[in-house]
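step 3/5: co-fold with adenosine-5'-diphosphate
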Amino acid sequence: MTDANENEQENLTDGFNLVIDALKLNDINTIYNVPGIPITDLGRMMQASGMRVLSFRHEQNAGYAAATAGFLTKKPGVCMTVSAPGFLNGLTALAHATTNCFPMIMISGSSEREIVDLQQGDYEEMDQLAIAKPLCKAAYRILNVEDIGIGIARAIRAAVSGRPGGVYLDMPAKLLPQVMNDKEGGKSLVKVIDAAPKQIPSQESIERACEILRSAEKPLIIIGKGAAYSQSDVEIKELIEKTGIPYLPMSMAKGILPDVHPQSASAARSLVLKEADVVLVIGARINWLLSHGKGKTWGENDKKFIQIDIDPKEIDSNVPIAAPVIGDIQSCINAILEKIDHTWVQPPAEWTNSIREKVETNIARMAPRLENQNNPMDFHGALGVLRDVIKERPEAILVNEGANTLDFTRSIIDMYQPRKRIDVGTWGVMGIGMGSAIAATVETGNPVLAIEGDSAFGFSAMEIETICRYNLPVCVVVFNNGGIYRGIDVNPTEGEDVATTVFVKDSRYDKLIEAFGGLGVNVSSPTELKSAVDEAMNSGSPTLINAAIDSSAGTESGRIGNLNPQRQMKK
Ligand code: ADP
Ligand code: MG
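step 4/5: write tokens
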């Protein structure tokens, strides 16, 4: 070949390759997706290029997986969907990620702009960008192959910087096969530098916070999932232990310090919320999960709040904040730690002892209930043994959803390591279970124990096939009490239908997994449950345990029954 010939033959690349190269350049190597038009080939090519591409049975579960990946890794989890219906299915998860401040990118294929905008009825026509916008932190569309690098860089930065959240990235079908010069294409890619920059708090804000903290008679620290996300485990531990202040972890912050830590006030939650006079909130919103910082839960005394958050808009959202500290948690805590020197005085013993006493009384009162051997089990008997499973395997990730199953598990099962508890989050989403379980083990390599209410499990149950297909070390325990909240409601009419909250009696969820080659076990006593779970966790093989729970155990809506409006007028 002559030189002239070589010059004529321009080397080309295309949208498919540039999307892959852009993601890889930014260390994104795992994709959670459901294949279909127009992203089938993109998924294939991603896999061929060495990326891990996990295919789900429903986009919502792929999306929950991506959200969970974001929480665990501080990198955006990526979910990829087909157009309109797939996009809409994924959207609940994108909104969930945004609501929980988890970084995630949802990439959806879409129909051609020219046809969508004239509403000419394209295949799966929908203005996806417009629909996604109010449900996520940022939404972008890439129309030209030259813009893929910039588009993906923007999506990554939007997802992880400041308060993390979900980002939507729209890719019309025509984008992917578009070609451009190979070299130019390479140059168009962007490696995102310092995607989530440190945000240093002002010195004034630190001084203000420390002054209030020093003035406290009954100080309390609340740590939320933002604290877990920030991976400031060492700093948080140092702050709590150096100051000697009792702390309360929010659900997904459990394990930043082991729940058995002597300063944990979890078992005295009502007491500390009512009586504390200064509350330092780290990476938690004072939303419904904290009774909005007011009302009976928070008692009568005047309280001062110090709040560490990366998002200045969060401050004063529910109650006045006496000392806002705006910055990333690690920088903020380091700045506070600098002020906690030898002059720091430990909180009054009267306060810390009263909490300790309450904690010990409550734990002692609970102990016999957790050892009960009822058959069929109640929640306490079942969770008493599952508590030991996690104690014996603190590195295992606990995924948890349901109503009563959620409430009881959260309070009974102690966590020992950070980011090992994944649950329904801020919205209380039922259906996060299997997607979260899959991402949890894929991202960390750790085994997963998923404790699922029977109703909650149903929302993502088909992903049991996904778990078997990839042979993941996931043990699912379905707390089967035959219905939503309970299985004993009756239809008040003469009609044949069962009550609205009741499922098939004595159902056998364990049979589901057998269809896919996994191990199904049916148990009805705590001893059987323990040995089945031990075996599953030791083998690392996909297992589904149907744990028969007394159908009369459980209460309406679990612990948030007050949020369910009840009819006042009787017929
Ligand atoms: P929980 O439900 O556990 O109470 P929330 O999700 O309500 O926690 O609150 C998490 C908070 O953490 C959010 O307000 C978010 O802005 C904040 N946050 C997240 N990451 C960081 C970070 N790295 N530094 C500071 N604040 C953060
Ligand atoms: Mg149930």
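step 5/5: annotate
The pocket of adenosine-5'-diphosphate (ligand 1) is lined by residues 100-101, 163, 224-226, 229-230, 250, 252-253, 283-285, 287, 289, 309-311, 314, 328-329, 426 (CB under 6 Å).
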